[in-house]
Amino acid sequence: MLKTVLIVVTSLLPQSSCRYNGKYRVLGSSPIEYITTANFSLANLPNDPHLEFRRCHFTSFGPDMFEALKPSTRRVTFRKGTVREVVIGPTTCLERIQVIDAGLVVLEAASDEPNYQLKQLTVRSRKFSEWSPSLASLWMLEEIDVAYCNLSYLNVQWLERYNHLKMLDVSKNRLVVFDIGMSSVPTLERLHLWGNHLKELQRFPEAFPKLKKVALAQNRWLCRWVANIRGGILSQGVELMDMDGVCRVGWQINGGLCCRSGEDRKAATSQRKTNEKSSIHGGHDFIGMNGSVFGMK
User: Fold this and answer.
1) Mind listing the UniProt keywords for this protein, alphabetically (predicted)?
2) Which of 9, 47, 93, 108 has a C-alpha 20 to 30 A away from that of 176?
3) CA–CA dist 142, 163 (Å, integer)
């Protein structure tokens, strides 16, 4: 007579103030739930390469808390919950930080001392509206993804220290000015600017000599500018990754992009000066080598 023997193997999860769900290991991450600033020190954090804090609540997640992570942890994701502020220290030994739908307001570096570990930075938060110049100390960044945030002004000069930056995604923000000026990011290969309020870009694409792909649709381009940069895009071999479909009334399609013939140069110049003035008097000023003040609004 054959007998079927059912063997049930159970294991006890570590006792901690968080709920740890091992089923997500197959997805490559170890979720940690319901941690707060108050009970973080009591949590028994898993010794895994990728930790995902879900529905956790932190007023600020700073260098001391990053230091409390296991040495084997190389990637941290904050998803849902609340993380108002993230401060990255020079000894934060992570390769990737993601803050997704957690209401992030402030992202900055703890000091000017370089961080040689972090390579990828991702933010999704409509409350995130300022790129802190202190982040220039994250020397090894290869990818910056701040799509679906609330940036209205970005100065390329703040990105010049990133000698390894290959991808910049600022899609679906409120960018009115993407200020290139005389700056350049020689290593940049992919640039995503679709879904903003941009009218024109200076020195484009020559400010990015290694640029391979760019996304420009759903902006407010001037037809004069579109016509002028088409030759540069073709000669530099840059691939336009997206195209506008049907344009709004009074607009026209030019090279795959919706644009308009009218130009409001005074309004654009005024907006740029307003953003620069606001950034200088903001709360995240940075004194440059020549004594100038770099800030962002």
Assistant:
1) Signal
2) 108
3) 8
